[in-house]
Amino acid sequence: MPKKKGSAKGKKGKGKKKSLKSGEVPEIWVKNLMKTYERNCKNVNTVMVPNLRKLMKDCIENNQMLVKIIVEPVPMVTKDDPQVQVEPLISAIRQERYTYLKDLHVWDMPLTHENMAAIALLLEKGFYPIRLLELMDCLIEPYSLDRLAKSFGFCSTLTTIVLDYNEFGDEGCKCLCQGLLNNETILSVSMCYCCLEESSGKMLGNVVANSTVRELYLDGNDLLCEGAMELIKLCVNKAETEEYERAEAKRQKEELEAEAALKEKEGRFGTAMSAGSGDEKPTSAGSKPGSAKGKKKKKGKKKKKKEPPAPPAVGPWIHKLHLADNGIDCYGKGGQFAPLVCMRLFKSLVTHSDCLKELDLEDNHIGDLGGKLILDALTERKEAGLPGMKLKTTTRMNADTFSAIVKLATGLKKKKKKGKGKKKKKK
C-alpha cells in the first residue's frame, strides 16, 4: 500500500520539544513541579492556588518555564474548607530543585514563623535565582522578619523586597535593616503602611549610606519631619560634596583649556615667523602623503566580549524616595518650624544630587514656604544642567508655586497595588 500524502507531514508536526541552551525541556520541569506541589497539598490537606495551577498548565502546553509565582488565598464558603498554604509550594520547589523561579509574590495570607523560615531557607540555598520577593499584607511579626533578614547575606540574586501593609513597626524595621547591611545586591525596598516612626528614619538612613539600597518606598508611615531628616541627612552631605567636586573639576578643565589655547596661539605665531624667513626643511619620501609607508593596513574589528555588569556601588546615594503621607508637617514634635527645616534639607538634596530620579512628598502639609524651597531647588537644578527628575508634592500651597513645580518636574504615576484602599491607622 502506498503511503498517504501528508502522513509524513503529520509526523513532522510532532517533532522534538524545544529545549533551553542547557538542554533542559521546560515542559518536563514544570510538570514535575506541578505533580510534587499537588502531592504536598494532599499530604497536609490544603488546596493548590487555582491561578497558579492554571498558569502551570499554560506553561506545560506552551513549553515555557515558570518564572513568576503568585500565592493568594481562595474564598472560603464554610469554616471547614481547606485553605491555601505556602509551605507545600516551597517544599515542592526544593524537592524538584526548580532553579528557574525569579519572582515570588505572596498576597493577603498570614505567614507564621515556620512559613517565613521556609522562605528564608529557600533564599539561603544560594542556587535559586530569586530576584523579587513580595510579601504583602501577610501579618508578619518582627521576630519572623528577623529570621527572613538573616538569609539576605546568602542570596546573591535578590534585588527587590516588598513588605507593604505588614504592621511590624520600628522593631521589625530594625531586624530588616540588619539583614540589608549584610547584602550586596538589594537595590529596592518597599515598606508602605508598616507603622514606621521616627527611629526608623535613622536606621534606614544608615542602610542607604552603607549598603546598595538606592530606592525606598515608605508611603503611609509616621516618620515625621525628624525621621525624614535623619533618612536623607547623609545623602545630602554626599550630594553637596559631589557638587563641590564637579565645580572644582570644571574649573580645572577650563584652566587647562585656556593654557592649551594660549600655547596653540604662541605656536602659530612662531610658525608664521619661520615661514616668513624661508627656511624650509625638505620632507623625506616616507613622510609624503599617499606614500606606501605612511599607510597602515586596516585590521578587521574584533567583537568585544560582553563583560558582566559591575556590582552596585555602596554609598549614600538615593535614586527614588517615596514619602507620601508621612506626617511631614507642623503638627509633630518640631512644631511649625519643623517642615521648614526639613524642606531645606530636601532643597539641598534636589539641587545637588545628580542621581535623584523620583521624590514623592504627596499628602504632607509642607506649607507655602516649603513649596517655595522645592521650587527654588528645581530651578537651580535645571540651571546647573543636572538630569531631570520626577517630583510629586501636596496641592495645599500657593497655586502659582504648585503650577511652577508641576512644570519643572513631571508628576509621578501611582502604582496600583493590592490593598490600596487600606487606610493608615490614626493615633
List keywords for this structure.
single chain; alpha/beta; nine-stranded parallel β-sheet; about 10% strand; globular
What report would you give on this structure?
A nine-stranded parallel sheet has the order 1-2-3-4-5-6-7-8-9. By secondary structure, the chain is of the alpha/beta class. The chain has helices at 7-13, 26-43, 50-62, 87-95, 113-124, 142-149, 169-180, 198-210, 224-277, 338-352, 367-383, 399-408, and strands spanning 68-71, 103-107, 132-136, 160-162, 188-190, 215-217, 320-322, 358-361, 390-393.
What gross morphology would you assign? globular
Residues in helices, as a percent range:
40-55%
Order of helices and strands: HHHEHEHEHEHEHEHEHEHEH
> How far apart, in Å, are the first and last alpha carbons?
88 Å
Q: Tell me the strand percentage band.
A: 5-15%
Task: Summarize the biggest pleated sheet.
Answer: 9 strands, parallel
Q: Strands of the largest sheet, in order across it? A: 1-2-3-4-5-6-7-8-9
